[in-house]
Amino acid sequence: MNRLLILFALCILASLSAKTQQVPYRSILDQLDSNYFAKRSTDPIKIDGVISESTWADAQKAGKFIQNFPTDTMTSSSGQEVMVSYDDRFLYIAAKIYNTVKNQHYVTPSLKRDYRGEANDAFVVTIDPFMDQMNAFSFGVNPYGVQREGLIVNGGVVSEDLSLSWDNKWFSEAKIQEDYWTAEIAIPLNTIRFRSGTNKWLINFYRIDSHNAERSSWSRIPNQYRPISLAYSKPIIFETPIEKKGRNISVIPYLSPGSIRKPISGTDKYNVNSNVSFGGDAKIGIGSSLNLDLTFNPDFSQVEVDNQVTNLDRFEILFPEKRQFFLENGDLFANFGIDGARPFFSRRIGVTRDQSTGQNVQNKIDAGFRLSGKINDRLRMGLLDMKSAAIPSINEPAYNFSVLSLQQRVFARSNLGFIFTNKDAIGVKDFNRVTGLDYNLASKNNVWNGKFFYMKSFDPIKRNDNAAFGSAMFYNKRFFESRQSLYYIGKNFNPEVGYLRRAGFFRFAGYFSPKYYPKKGSINNWGPMFDYDFTVFPKLGVTDYDINLLYNVQYKNYVTLMLRFRKDYTKLTSDFDPTNSGGVKLKANTAYNYYSFICSLSTDQRKKLAAKLGSRSGQYFNGTRVNLDAEVNYRIQPFGSISSVLSFNRLRFPQPYTSKDLILFGPKIDLTFTKSLFLSTLVQYNNQINNINMNVRFQWRFAPASDLFIVYTDNYYADNYLSKGSALVLKATYWFNL
User: Fold this and answer.
1) Which residue in 129, 178, 334, 597 has the fewest CB atoms around it within 10 Å?
2) Among candidates 534, 553, 550, which has minimal Cα distance to 542?
């Protein structure tokens, strides 16, 4: 422990000396436009990628971009011109993106919408209509005209703050020329939530340049922050107040015939059930800033399946929400509490657990509504109510789920939030409720981000020690970053509509990481990291901790390398099978010290063949573990990719404990025949859960935000290849604007 303290002190001293280094960039900032003045369009704008209208000739040009990567003290290697205009129905954006070489080879993962990562060329606009620098809309297009749209929450501090699962109706086109490419975008004003009558928003533009391995933006974003960061957006001033006119109502009905085949136990025969379901969603604008989402008999069969993982943890795995209904303003509901303890998790609605088998089963949703958005410039609101159907076969009653959240902006970018969740059984005396308060801190310059939270649950049985409280803070400067958290989860804290890994403990965790930027060479930045995580139960003392020493390197070509030496201590609070596959369990109250070495490598994702590799070897509880994780992708540009994930864990334990080789293998083929015709095939072999899953998904986007899906799913036992059942579903949706 003394050696660890010495290493910790050295890291702090190194970081302090590093922070005294400053890179001048004031002269560059003085050259930049302080804001953008948008004129009304003077002629009809045709969205064809050809910037020929007189509106664009007269528009102000936003052209001087500052690099975000690999540095933040230089202008972009090649130029660009961005123009903005508007009329009563649309916000228009045009961009002319120059290259440093003629006939540049552009990178795109495929022709499928919602691309992300360094493996692309792209132009993106982020729009913050309420100027809170915490929430924004993101619209992007690449040289091939492929769209992506998303929502940015929490100020865009980490990459997970951008959700590309959100979908909406807008228009764009792009054209490739000899030494530049162009893009035209038309965003319906009804797509964006804003206060009608205002003449000022916040906006930023950024581009990804694959040839120069460069990210740059109109408003300078320091290198330590991501280009989605909202703290550095600049004003756009409209010539006349921008207003919403007319009705803002969209109806999205669906029709879905399908067939489900299940084996009859003890025979080689199958039951086949066919049915036709219908339902839909509606989006209704309430004023200019609130949106009412309605759903009736929703069907999520077209949503992409979760990527399976090998679970060597003692706790439930959290998968992200992908269903459209829950996404817009999703942070108003989902971000209360802290990782591992959330009062609301939308995937609790529509899924339940069969208590006799322990398996998750689909739970039909009858109907629901969701009201969310801005009440005024500083107050946001979210209100949700949904009803699930009963499942008599597993004695599951119907439930009503209700959530209310309020978020009041304080100071420049911080906010104070309140949440109330309620789960009521219909016809049975059973309920669960949670109240919570969050103070979310975000400093004006984005250096400090974090939160303080308090939550309390209520149910008929667990009435004491049912609160959770704590804080988490993130400090990020160019040469040093640190994240620290400390919280307590009460033994009887029980958020049934949320997510909870476990309860009854204190946890304090964090890291310190100085960073260094060589002036020459291929390395962009490197640095050591000291990372720790302690769990303490009041009566048991320390039950878990891990201490890590790391070395991180990021190269200028996007390659990243991480080396880690880790020490673990675990005192089991309950019996546990370390393979999580039905072997002999280690006994509760036994303690284990074990050491391991971990490394990971991400290659240049711009290459046609790219990989993300990870490995771990060393001790594991009372045995050993050798692990290899690989994600390999071959890009058949621009028409798709062939990829595969592989997770191999070789677990060895002394008798009588079970030794096992756990294998997860998931090849996937993504084909994009056009920008509106897609086919994906995913096969997942997972011997830990004895399952082989195949999912084939065909999508035809025959009109904006309107699709035809054909989805085939099949599951087999991995040991004998007998069928567990299959389903074939056709689903058609159409987006009507009324």
Assistant:
1) 178
2) 534
Cα dihedral sign, 166-170-175-179: negative
User: In angstroms, rounded to a whole number, what is the distance separating the alpha carbons of residues 38 and 237?
Assistant: 6
Query: How many other CB atoms are there within 10 angstroms of residue 237's CB atom?
Result: 12
What is the C-alpha to C-alpha distance for residues 61 and 73, in angstroms, rounded to an integer?
21
The residue among 394, 323, 299 whose CA lies nearest residue 355 is 394
Question: Which pLDDT score, from 0 to 100, does residue 27 have?
Answer: 43
Name the helix (H) or strand (E) containing 27.
helix 26-29
Q: DSSP character for 5?
A: H
CB neighbourhood size of 307 (10 A)? 13
498 near 348, Cβ under 8 Å? yes
The span from the CA of 7 to the CA of 10, in Å, is 5
How many angstroms separate the CA atoms of 22 and 692, rounded? 55
Q: 201 with 129: CB under 8 angstroms?
A: yes
Q: Where are the domains of the chain?
A: 32-242
Q: Residue 507: which H helix or E strand, with range?
A: strand 505-514
User: What angle is formed at CA 640 by the lines to CA 634 and CA 645, rounded to 5 degrees?
Assistant: 45
Q: What is the pLDDT of residues 96-106, one digit of tens each?
A: 999 999 888 89
Q: What mean pLDDT value characterizes the chain?
A: 90
Q: Are 434 and 457 in contact (CB under 8 A)?
A: yes
Strand partners, 206: 124, 217
What kind of fold does domain 32-242 have according to CATH?
Answer: Immunoglobulin-like (2.60.40)
- My answer on whether omega of the bond before 654 falls inside 30° of 0, hence cis, is no
Single-letter code of the amino acid located at 624: T
Predicted confidence (pLDDT) per residue in 141-189, tens digit: 999 999 999 999 999 998 889 988 888 889 999 999 999 999 999 999 9
CB 365 within 8 A of CB 387: yes
Give the bridge partners for 203, in sequence order. Answer: 127, 234
Residue type, 443: S
The pair of structure tokens assigned to 510 is 């964090």
User: What's the predicted TM-score (pTM) here?
Assistant: 0.88
Residue reference for tokens 């928003």: 201
Distance CA 384, CA 334 (A): 12
